[in-house]
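Form P-L/3: holo structure prediction, ligand LLP.
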Amino acid sequence: MKGTFPIDKFAKMQTPFYYYDTDLLRETLRTINAEAGKHPNFVVHYAIKANANPKVLNVICQAGLGADCVSGGEIQRCVETGFPASKIVYAGVGKSDWEINLGLDRDIFCFNVESIPELEVINELAGKKDKVARVCFRINPDVGAHTHANITTGLAENKFGIAMRDMESVISEAEQMAHVKFIGLHFHIGSQILDMGDFEALCNRINQLQDQLEQHHIKVENINVGGGLGIDYNHPNRVPIPDFKSYFDTFAHHLKLREGQKLHFELGRSVVGQMGSLITRCLYVKQGTAKQFAIVDAGMTDLIRPALYQAYHKIENLTSDEPVETYDVVGPICESSDVFAKAIDLNKTHRGDLIALRSAGAYGEIMASQYNCRPLPKGFITEEL
Ligand code: LLP
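OUTPUT (holo model):
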């Protein structure tokens, strides 16, 4: 089964480009709001890093989600889009002074702090402005996730967060500081997680830490469990919307929230992954000695995930219905890793055929580069075509 696309409109367009199906995006957002909405203390933020295309952000902002930023540039983009500062959280191990100052000037909801030196700088910069910065501590929960090694973040060996054993001392240090206010704990164990057991393990760890803090009479107003819910890269047509019900229910059942506590989520891939496809044209079909190559006009500069993480993206020939043949689908970049897929079945492919790389709405356009002096790919939403 192939996806449905406005192929007649694509036919006139310059490739490669990203196509964002806003009907699917809106449906996904409705599902998120309906499932999270069953729990009045759940707050959902969108992780801007997954896709910061202004037209996509606009749709997400209108659905009422908050924003999770990891840089000053992302904060700026959110503010321009219209996300209220009171719904912006800001994480990252290396926040520069200008970025912290921007967050302070905008009065964002909170800084997710990843180290004591960072806490000290935030306190100092907030002091200069005579402000008090709300801070959450990102705790490294040492919970593994069953996903690609490059995208696990919650293990003790990762650079992210503050070690669990330092949690209480960091909180008491913050309490001594005049220009920061401790308001919660932040966690994130990794990305593209499909096993709800991983999130359950996170809940159990948070329960443990909360018990520990309670013994020291430390009150935590907010718990932020990060993002990480995966999408079905194999079946973008059959499973266009991730199982948000199981995801939110896992937290509702396993996390023991305290009275009045808010639970925050930072979802990226699961919001935008399936609504995006990279649309490219076949330039040449080349017969190798033992295989045939479909050489397309998109490359790793447009979608780096296959080259960087050996990620799988389903590939469909949108213009051919001829019997399938086996192809390596490769881009034009001067790198042997510029390969989208090896030995896959595609309907017999010819020069000029339109090819879709599916499930590319997250970490696609935003990770594009200009290597080889290539222009950045553009992104179009349904309404623009
Ligand atoms: N919160 C924090 C603190 C994060 O580090 C991330 C992602 C998210 C939320 C959003 O996670 P999501 O819901 O999208 O899984 N470029 C990689 C993914 C890197 C994810 C980095 N952190 C990829 O293409 O697979």
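COMMENT: The chain has two domains: 7-16+274-384, 23-273.
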